[in-house]
Amino acid sequence: MANILVVGGAGYIGSHMVKALAEAGHQVVVLDNLSTGFRELSRYGRLVVGELADVTLLEPLFAENDFHAVMHFAANSLVGESVKDPSKYYRNNVSGTLNLLDVMVRHKVMHFIFSSTAATFGEPEYTPIDEAHPQQPINPYGASKLMVERILQDYASAYGLNSVCLRYFNACGADPEGELGECHDPETHLIPLVLQAASGRREAITVFGRDYPTEDGTCIRDYIHILDLCTAHAQALDYLANGKGQGALAFNLGNGQGFSVKQVIEVAQQVVAKDGYRIKVNEGERRAGDPAVLVADAQLAREQLGWRPQYADLETIVSHAWAWERQRARL
Ligand SMILES: NC(=O)c1ccc[n+]([C@@H]2O[C@H](COP(=O)([O-])OP(=O)(O)OC[C@H]3O[C@@H](n4cnc5c(N)ncnc54)[C@H](O)[C@@H]3O)[C@@H](O)[C@H]2O)c1
């Protein structure tokens, strides 16, 4: 059992992680400013409502708790917004994280797990994308995450801070027990958008482009169930704790198997049809900055962390997300 600080633990991914940690017997403190998170999602840890950038809050929090590790999920993560307002992204995602890291070093908390992203790679030069792929982000969101990755390398060599960056591709699905799920507003992720079109919270789903160089002409993405993400984090925590993870490490996380937008919609149609619902689909033009294929090569995480996704099946992912959407839409 360890004492873990989960920053951003009232958000989508963080809240599932807090539940997994609590169920594994860890003591969890959640720090979250509730800017995009929800008190109701923070069911399993002790919630401290506050700001990552507030050193006067972080100092006593670290002094009072003997944290073994920090998992850092807090960030702004809307690509379009990051282009319009880069200051917000660099301030929160980079400067806020720097505050946290400095407090950690001062309090000798030397294990850090960071939510990074496929957006650090930019336009793929090849797929599946492995860790050797060049990192050339094409928006401030991706750049802000890459800056933290670089900072972590320097903090490892200068201060001995050991870290694991987990670069997620598309996080999706929901807690199979129905307690937690995705509540982004605005929602930008395909699966919840498709399901909102089924529940009636959205009129239709728009497919942006049918002329990509893929088998069915729609974009292909790598969808990773939230519980598989949580497992990778738990394994990264063990990896750091047992001394295997020294320095600043990074792993790509995805199923290594892409699904096209058309496939996702077809599976969603089948899942919601069982409950008598249907999804209206509109056609749209390609959007700028959408690569045709984004798929992870997660071989390194498999080898080093022993990670094996358990929920790679698209129907399972969509079914869990649909159960959550039905609750939200009160169906
Ligand atoms: N959802 C995905 O598919 C995906 C993919 C790749 C990477 N990521 C990364 O994973 C992390 C979690 O994503 P999510 O989808 O759960 O997002 P989310 O918005 O649901 O969760 C982020 C949480 O951090 C909190 N937060 C933000 N800024 C804060 C601050 N300054 N101080 C304290 N709390 C703050 C928010 O209130 C929220 O609860 C993010 O860092 C995101 O960039 C997500």
TrEMBL record:
Its EC number is 5.1.3.2. It catalyses: UDP-alpha-D-glucose = UDP-alpha-D-galactose. Keywords: Carbohydrate metabolism, Isomerase, NAD. Residues 5-312 form the NAD(P)-binding domain. It is an enzyme of class 5 (isomerase). GO terms for biological process: galactose catabolic process via UDP-galactose, Leloir pathway. One of its GO terms (molecular function) is UDP-glucose 4-epimerase activity. Belongs to the NAD(P)-dependent epimerase/dehydratase family. Homodimer. This is UDP-glucose 4-epimerase. It comes from Marinobacterium nitratireducens.
